[in-house]
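#lab-general

N.A. 3:47 PM
ok so I finally got the sequence cleaned up, no stray characters, all 496 residues accounted for. can someone with queue access submit it? mine expired

B.Y. 3:52 PM
send it over

N.A. 3:53 PM
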Amino acid sequence: MSEHFDVLVVGAGLSGVGAGYWLQKQCPGKSYAIIEARGRKGGTWDLFRYPGIRSDSDMFTLGYAFRPWTDPKAIADGPSILRYIDETARAYGIDEKIRYNERMVSASFSSEEARWKVEVKTEAGAKTYTCGFLYMCTGYYRYESGYTPDFAGMGDYRGTIVHPQAWPADLDYSGKKVVVIGSGATAMTLVPEMAKTAGHVTMVQRSPTYVVARPSSDAIADFLRAKLPAQLAYNLVRWKNVAFGLYFYNLCKRKPEKVKNYLLKLVREQLPSGYDVEKDFTPRYKPWDQRLCLITDGDLFQAIRENRASVATDTIERFTERGLKLTGGKEIEADVIVVATGLFLQQFGGAELAVDGRKVELSKTLNYKGMMFSDVPNLAATFGYTNASWTLKADLIGEYVCRILNAMEAKKKRIVVARNEDTDMPVEDFVDFSSGYFQRALDTLPKQGARKPWRLYQNYLKDLLSLRYGDVEDGAMRFEDASPKAAPAPREKEAA
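B.Y. 4:20 PM
back already:
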């Protein structure tokens, strides 16, 4: 016999623990459980164990709105973030709601019963849940393995190849020659950290990334925390950082060349005189076409100045027995090669969804307010910002889910679903973002519309007004009775 909950949360990472808080606070009468595929909570911050793992956002915005970040570091290391998630779960009793080693395999919604049937794989075998509302907090990438390009000659290499997503706990790179392939956030973290003990670390990149150095601590935050109650100080710093982030992002979009020149000026100031910044640190794209890479206290530049690390900008011709051969002819010897080449985007942890027997194809749906999908009832999913901290959006979604659940109860309706009646509305890709992991998965992602509530704004203030203060009955959100009728098929326009 299946166990039933009003809400089933899938995933016990940063988003899932936050979801538990909002459900307890704003929907205290609703029963809920959190299922987690792995044996521990924390999601990303438990999975990744590579050297120096840290946030690439400040913790005053990556932290929860309801629980102040009190650690001295504004840019925090992975273990500190994991501890913060764990302490939050225990402080609010959320950890008692988590069921570990339970992986959602599939979920099917019945309009007649107004509930989801969720099939789960456990260590003991198959298991079934039913729920009135399914709340997906599974993140956005595949946990099982990261993305590694099919480099020629990888089988010839006699050293150690490592992907950051599966870092060996016993890997010893002290005094060794290390190559890190990639120039994203992970590589920018790995290179200076490994350079502390390695013989030398070379970052091999196909093309440069915008790099911004930022202090690991926040002087204003430190001052306010010494003078004010913790929550008030936290809120003020949070809003300071939100405001600056929005200002800087919009400035990048309005005056990309001006911002580009400014960022490169900062880079030049931290590198040795005569360094070829044009080759190694001048991207081909505009600022914020991809996420800017944050380095703490200029650690990457310091490692380069001290000749503990270097950058090679070129494509890889092949792996050799002793390292890499670049297209330009240069050969780099390496005892260890780290392929920091990205991840696989994956929705819902790889589980399949169906509504009234029809498979849900996300690419044929429209994304509603960045959290729901057209014609998919009683389901919300957390997806954070590409230009700001993940948790800013996760908190807003948590609040909005609760608003929807409470509206359903008030209206005595069992189904809530976003319907698009604007048949002439143009549709676009889910995000305007050129990073490889998004581009590789665009054909699997939902679309966004040209007009609200189908527009994905990537703007915290707009989302705040919409999700916290906007009317839930906005013309697209429908509250319906259970019905034996099958849900309508997606329109061809949406699938375009």
